[in-house]
Amino acid sequence: MDALFHSIIGEEAARVWAEVPVRVDGAAVAAQCAWVWARLRAVVVVPAVRLLLAVSLAMTVMILVEKLFVCAACLVVKAFRLGPERRYRWEPIVSGAGGGAKRHPMVLVQIPMYNEREVYKLSIGAACALEWPSDRFVIQVLDDSTDPVVKDLVELECQRWKSKGVNIKYEVRGNRKGYKAGALKEGLKHDYVKDCQYIAMFDADFQPESDFLLRTIPFLVHNPEIALVQTRWKFVNADECLLTRFQEMSLDYHFKFEQEAGSSVYSFFGFNGTAGVWRIAAIDDAGGWKDRTTVEDMDLAVLLFPEIQIPLWGVVYVPTVITLLKALGTPSSFHLVILWVLFENVMSLHRIKAAVSGLLDAGGRVNEWVVTEKLGDANKTKPNTNGSDAIKVIDVKLTEPDVKLTEPLVPKLVKKRTRFWERYHCSELFVGTCVILCGCYDVLYAKKGYYIYLFLQGMAFLVVGFGYVGTIPPCTG
């Protein structure tokens, strides 16, 4: 009986469905969707990509003009020997009798640190060896270290120099808000800073020459309109590996050309974050330190739109001239210019991530990437732990002026198991995969020869993304 009932119901449903006038035609739906996409592509997508292409080409031309202007300005400076000493007043500072007008001004030396176990002794020692009246400068070590062993070693080193008569302050804070900028901001709140007129800043891996203050402070003393004196960087390990050569090429151009031209023509000039001397009044007038940090890739998008053509000068000639001009900073590494371009493009993505993270005040993992280990005494002396994880403690008497800490003896930290997104740079992996897919599209369909560059650039992104270049620091809580 039930079977008969179900059979009747099924026949009735089939009869009703057959009388329904509406039919779903798959081919018609696909054709309709294709028509909508064609209209959307013609009216919205293609014009938008054309606009982006025009903006990209305009920016490329602007960069070319800027590079040519920078090189011309530097040539004029070198040809006419218009160094800073000729453009500004500079005289050595001599202390007058009874503390006269030419008495050495009070200077604050700031050294922000974060787990700097390799170089903390070198940087603190170099700062303490600066040639300046001992009663006219104070060294401020701003330690944000999260490793308690490193914090104890840094504090011990500060106490050692303090026992020798050096005016050095060891400062810590309860959190790492704002990271380096936050540490610098907190350092200026101490009462003893009110007597200082100038601030010299050095990262922990910088070792200033002993006459650094004698050469820089006079520019600020004799030229009240100057707020910042930025010095050049030199690299002790430029020839260590290929990546250090790449970094030297980028930074040499920045210091030898960009900053030289900017200073010469009194245009916008940026602080490099270290190896500079500030007038404290200028920092206060600007509102103090803030916690926030402040195109060739267009070709990848237009490959998918044959109706859009990139002019040859925009994709080959102008970028080539820009690259050659930037390579002038380090002529000895000119033969590495192709590999350097690939590396710079990868680092551009990394800088964008850092800038966006700082501007949006994004929390979470800090955008860190270490190319080489920092050089220091800890790397030269291997700790003798006898196969154990114990740390050897050195008992010293801080009252003895000639005591020497020959070795911090901090063993290498054991790598901990981490999650996938903490072991690798996912954004670099994503971009590298997209670039390689664009190269495959060019090989199979476009056939414009772009795949040669795209495959190389994509592999460069993947190499960095998988962590085969440099060291990804562990996440801190």
Please provide a brief summary of the model:
The protein is an alpha/beta fold and 477 residues long. The protein is built from 16 helices and six strands.
List the helices and strands and how they pair.
Blueprint: H1 2-19, H2 26-79, H3 84-87, E1 107-113, H4 120-128, E2 137-143, H5 148-162, E3 168-171, H6 179-187, E4 198-201, H7 212-222, E5 228-230, H8 242-264, E6 276-279, H9 280-285, H10 298-302, H11 312-326, H12 337-359, H13 377-380, H14 420-423, H15 426-446, H16 451-465
Parallel strand pairs: 1-2, 1-4, 2-3
Antiparallel strand pairs: 4-6, 5-6
Your description of this structure?
With about 475 residues, the chain is α/β, with parallel strands linked by helices. Among the domains are: about 90-95 and about 105-235 and about 270-290 and about 360-415, Spore Coat Polysaccharide Biosynthesis Protein SpsA, Chain A (Alpha-Beta Complex); about 415-475. The chain has helices at about 1-20, 25-80, 85, 120-130, 150-160, 180-185, 210-220, 240-265, 280-285, 300, 310-325, 335-360, 375-380, 420-425, 425-445, 450-465; strands at about 105-115, 135-145, 170, 200, 230, 275-280. α2 crosses α8, α2 (about 25-80) runs parallel beside α11 (about 310-325) and α15 (about 425-445) packs antiparallel against α16.
Discrete helix count: 16
Q: Specify the CATH class of the domain at 89-94 and 103-233 and 272-292 and 361-414.
A: Alpha Beta
How would you characterize the largest beta sheet? 6 strands, mixed
Main sheet strand line-up: 3-2-1-4-6-5
Low-confidence stretches: 293-303, 377-415
Taking all Cα atoms into account, the compactness measure Rg is: 31 Å
Keywords: Cell wall biogenesis/degradation, Glycosyltransferase, Golgi apparatus, Membrane, Transferase, Transmembrane, Transmembrane helix
EC number: 2.4.1.32
Main location: Golgi
Membrane topology: Multi-pass membrane protein
